[in-house]
């Protein structure tokens, strides 16, 4: 064991296990470790580094803002915060209108949304099996995985879990007591699970029938990841308008930021005194997010995400050991007939950073600035990586 791993184990809480690499530098979709070894980063800090590492637009925005006005608290407004809120509402549909609450992470964005749903006067929530909404107590209450939940029960209550993608089960679970239905448009941590067509519109109908809010957790799927600004804007979303959207991961391009967006009347549910944050909406984080949105637009990265996703799904899925290649844009899930954690290890030895979400599932959520060359290079290396696992097993 190397010295940095010993230092990690004695100084960091053991919540993640000991990392395999100590990374020291990044540029675009590439990172370098402490030994100077280069990797193509197909995990992107878990769908966070939308513009890759050290993007000049984020660097310039953050540097400029920090040198001008870094933090002021929510006793004061700042121009980046105003501009970002307006920009997000425009991207979600200028005709709908709404209001934004900024925070610092996905879990926090979901906590604010959960509190917002309580302001309907109802407490029942419908969530889905396989869901992931974060690790704080409220977000965890909506997360289905028993291993995450059970050590911390009792969690805030009255949540019904229904099988993901089953419109009939969801519809049956919504009642006049339901405050909200919370869904990921594509489940991320569950291994990039795409629901059948019509699922979101069925959820919208069930909510409308009972006066419940439709809350879409786009923490992972949002900000261009799937080839649309938001996954519910893909054709499969059939034009559905949610009441609440939560964002984080890709929004800040690596600077922590979360956003809870109440569309239409849902934007007025949280009232003075109902919620707060010291850091949320910090000018530096908002400036970073504006730089991310500008760059996605200017460099047409939504189209890039769509095209690169197809290259990866078609190319990687051609190997017979891939039983399914799914997802949208640069949110790619691969179901394998070989051991997925073994594939992650073999890929790392070959200079690629991937992630296994389960024993047979690989998830790729690379930067949207991934080059064609890197995507094709990985497709060419893929069968060799899978061979290495079979030999080792
Ligand atoms: C990652 C994730 C979260 C939690 O975000 P954190 O920033 O880790 O708190 C919530 N919802 C979804 C869908 C996610 O993918």
UniProtKB/TrEMBL annotation:
Pathway: Amino-acid biosynthesis; L-arginine biosynthesis; N(2)-acetyl-L-ornithine from L-glutamate: step 4/4. Its EC number is 2.6.1.11. Binds 1 pyridoxal phosphate per subunit. InterPro entries: AcOrn/SuccOrn_fam (IPR004636), Aminotrans_3 (IPR005814), Aminotrans_3_PPA_site (IPR049704), Class-III_PLP-dep_AT (IPR050103), PyrdxlP-dep_Trfase (IPR015424), PyrdxlP-dep_Trfase_major (IPR015421), PyrdxlP-dep_Trfase_small (IPR015422). It is found in: Cytoplasm. N(2)-acetyl-L-ornithine binds at residues 135, 277. Its cofactor is pyridoxal 5'-phosphate. It catalyses: N(2)-acetyl-L-ornithine + 2-oxoglutarate = N-acetyl-L-glutamate 5-semialdehyde + L-glutamate. Pyridoxal 5'-phosphate binds at residues 106-107, 132, 217-220, 278. Its main location: cytoplasm. The keyword DNA repair does not apply. May also have succinyldiaminopimelate aminotransferase activity, thus carrying out the corresponding step in lysine biosynthesis. Belongs to the class-III pyridoxal-phosphate-dependent aminotransferase family. ArgD subfamily. This is Acetylornithine aminotransferase. The gene is argD.
